[in-house]
Structures are given as structure tokens and as C-alpha cells.
């Protein structure tokens, strides 16, 4: 078979590990020919490809980013986009495509599958908010990066008797904020699933500092929102998929916390540092398992499906099921665990 491989959406630690595994299983195990598609769905719109074989993939396992490049291009944003993708795939002689990405990339894959494209999905998002799989690769690395940053923020906060607001990624779900907040000993964790009352947060901080604990870390997911009427946030611009461009809530919260509490407050936005760098061992293994399973799914004709992790096993899930709704944070983590360490 001749199989195309693409990576779409934001970059993520572990993408290269998936690419390597797809290539190794398909080329060595099945005798397939692999074609790298440049910059996600844009590559199929523009007919741009890269060489992709076992030799090309040597040494990429620990590398962050993606050797194929990526973009947030949405073929359905152009009237002839889907037709151009299908025509390019036919011109390249592709029997199938492995699409590695999150909600948007796999959403396009699902729509194109309905139009006849043979595609298998691999779930990718550091936010860990994709349904159908217990974990997505990249999440573990992002949490580790955020936790290490929070550890460092503790020492500088203690030195200056400050509150520090640390913003992490998480558009729809607070998985990174909650895991990193618990692991890093945060005073408060603010997530998209539950609108926050900043006055309540400030009261926790005042009580804590009154007891002589002069350093507090507030971890906030970029998609967290205040309860209606408690704080005003500016409307965000929309991206190509209609999602708000998030980031910057910490810059609003820090001066407001200082104004309401009188405690010196600073902020740090981790931003793309969470996406970069070498994946953890856990993410390398998970990404490798996903890649091997994706190549096998292609040969089984399991199209319009996504490989996923469930109960420690790699399974196949219909893309429609994976895309039905975001996977929100388990409230037990926030209230059954994190709340006991609040304040």
C-alpha cells in the first residue's frame, strides 16, 4: 500500500514518535511505501509532500515538534477545499492516510471519510480533552513541564512574599491545570469546567497570608472563565475553525488579585513552552503504540476510526464517537483531591 502521513493542529511532544512508529510498522512489517504530507491538511490542498521512510525517521524518537510540519488549515474553509484534498490524494496514488491530530484535524478526517477518503486517526492534544481515549500523548510531557515551572515559581514567590498566577494551556478542559496544580502544590486551581469567583480565590489568599504563608501559586487554565458579573474579560478573536484565540487570562487576574487583596502579585504564562521539547518516556511509549496500531488499522481497513487507549490497551474507536463532545475534567480530581490542599 501507499500510505500518506500528516500531522495537524498545534505541535506536540511525541508527534515524531508516532510518525516513526507508523513508518516502521508499515514499511518493515507490511512492505508499504510511505508519503509524508507537509503541514497537515494544507499539504493535500497544495500537493506538497516529503520523503518518508525508515532511514528518514532515524533519531527522531526523542525530538519534539514534527518533521512533517503542521498547520491549522481547514480544507472546509474553502468551497473547493475537500475536492482538492481528494484529488491530490488520488494524484499521489494514496491508498490511505494516517491523520495525527486533535479535535479539528480529526474532525476534518471524519468529514472527508464520509466523502470517500480512507483515513485512520491518531489522537493528539496536550489538553487531553479528546473523547474516546483515556490519555493523549503529549499531555504527560506538558504536565511535567508545567510542574517543573511551578516548582521554580514557588521559590521566587517565597523570596518576595508574592502571589504568582501561572497560566497553562487548556481550552475546554482543565486537565493540565489540575494535574500540574496538584503535583506542584498550588493554592488554587481555576479550570474551564467551573466558572470561578475571584472574590472567593482572593479570600483564600488573604487567609493563607494572614497565617504567615507568604507565597501562593494560582494555576489557571487559559480557557477558565469567571462567574457572570464577577469579572469582565475581553472578547477573543476566532481562528480558522471558529475557536477563540485564548491566552492572557493571567495578565488580567494578577493585577486584579493584587488590587483586591493588597498582596503583591505577578503572573507567568507558560504558553508554547508546554508544547516544545523532548517527550517524556511515557509519551514516547504511548505515541509508539498508537503509531504501530494505526498502521495495522490501515491494513485491516478500519477507516474513519481512531486508535485509543482504554484500560491500558490500544483499541479502535469510531471518529464520530471521539468527536461527539470534549472530554472534560473528572470533578473528583478537583474536589475529591485538589480541594483538600487549597489554601
UniProtKB/TrEMBL annotation:
Q: Where is this site: Important for catalytic activity?
A: 124
> What keywords are annotated for this sequence in UniProt?
Cytoplasm, Glycolysis, Kinase, Magnesium, Metal-binding, Transferase
Question: Which annotated residues bind diphosphate?
Answer: 10
List site positions: Important for catalytic activity and substrate specificity: 104
The cross-references to InterPro entries, in alphabetical order and at most eight, read: ATP_PFK, ATP_PFK_prok-type, Phosphofructokinase_CS, Phosphofructokinase_dom, Phosphofructokinase_III, PKF_sf
Q: EC number(s)? A: 2.7.1.90
Regulation of this protein's activity per its record: Non-allosteric.
Catalytic machinery residues: 127 (proton acceptor)
Q: Which family does it belong to?
A: Belongs to the phosphofructokinase type A (PFKA) family. Mixed-substrate PFK group III subfamily.
**Protein function:** Catalyzes the phosphorylation of D-fructose 6-phosphate, the first committing step of glycolysis. Uses inorganic phosphate (PPi) as phosphoryl donor instead of ATP like common ATP-dependent phosphofructokinases (ATP-PFKs), which renders the reaction reversible, and can thus function both in glycolysis and gluconeogenesis. Consistently, PPi-PFK can replace the enzymes of both the forward (ATP-PFK) and reverse (fructose-bisphosphatase (FBPase)) reactions.
Query: Can you say what this protein is called?
Result: Pyrophosphate--fructose 6-phosphate 1-phosphotransferase
Q: Which gene encodes it?
A: pfp
Amino acid at each position: 500500500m501507499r500510505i500518506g502521513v500528516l500531522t495537524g493542529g498545534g505541535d506536540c511532544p511525541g508527534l515524531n514518535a508516532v510518525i516513526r512508529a507508523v513508518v516502521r510498522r508499515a514499511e518493515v512489517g507490511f512492505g508499504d511505501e510511505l508519503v509524508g504530507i507537509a503541514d497537515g491538511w494544507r499539504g493535500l490542498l497544495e500537493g506538497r509532500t516529503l520523503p518518508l521512510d525508515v532511514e528518514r525517521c532515524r533519531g527522531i524518537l526523542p525530538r519534539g515538534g514534527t518533521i512533517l510540519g503542521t498547520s491549522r488549515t481547514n480544507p472546509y474553509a474553502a468551497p473547493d477545499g475537500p475536492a482538492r484534498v481528494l484529488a491530490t490524494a488520488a494524484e499521489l496514488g494514496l491508498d490511505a492516510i494516517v491523520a495525527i491530530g486533535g479535535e479539528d484535524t480529526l474532525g476534518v478526517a471524519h468529514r472527508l471519510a464520509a466523502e470517500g477518503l480512507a483515513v485512520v486517526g491518531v489522537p493528539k492534544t496536550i489538553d487531553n480533552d479528546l473523547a474516546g481515549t483515556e490519555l493523549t500523548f503529549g499531555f504527560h510531557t506538558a504536565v511535567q513541564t508545567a510542574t517543573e515551572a511551578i516548582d521554580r515559581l514557588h521559590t521566587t514567590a517565597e523570596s518576595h512574599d508574592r502571589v504568582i498566577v501561572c497560566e497553562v494551556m487548556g481550552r475546554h478542559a482543565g486537565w493540565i491545570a489540575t494535574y500540574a496544580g496538584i503535583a506542584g502544590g498550588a493554592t488554587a486551581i481555576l479550570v474551564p469546567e467551573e466558572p470561578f469567583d475571584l472574590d472567593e480565590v482572593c479570600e483564600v489568599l488573604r487567609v493563607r497570608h494572614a497565617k504567615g504563608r507568604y507565597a501562593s501559586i494560582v494555576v489557571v487554565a487559559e480557557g477558565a472563565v469567571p462567574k457572570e458579573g464577577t469579572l469582565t474579560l475581553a472578547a477573543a478573536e476566532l481562528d480558522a475553525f471558529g475557536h477563540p484565540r485564548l491566552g492572557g487570562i493571567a495578565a488580567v487576574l494578577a493585577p486584579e488579585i493584587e488590587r483586591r487583596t493588597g498582596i503583591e502579585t505577578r503572573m507567568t504564562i507558560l504558553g508554547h513552552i508546554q508544547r516544545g521539547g523532548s517527550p517524556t518516556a511515557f509519551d514516547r511509549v504511548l505515541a509508539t503504540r498508537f503509531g504501530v496500531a494505526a498502521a495495522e488499522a490501515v491494513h485491516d481497513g478500519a477507516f474513519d476510526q481512531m486508535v485509543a487507549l482504554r484500560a491500558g490497551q490500544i483499541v479502535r474507536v469510531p471518529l464520530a464517537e471521539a468527536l461527539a463532545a470534549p472530554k472534560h475534567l473528572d470533578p473528583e480530581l478537583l474536589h475529591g483531591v485538589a480541594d483538600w490542599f487549597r489554601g
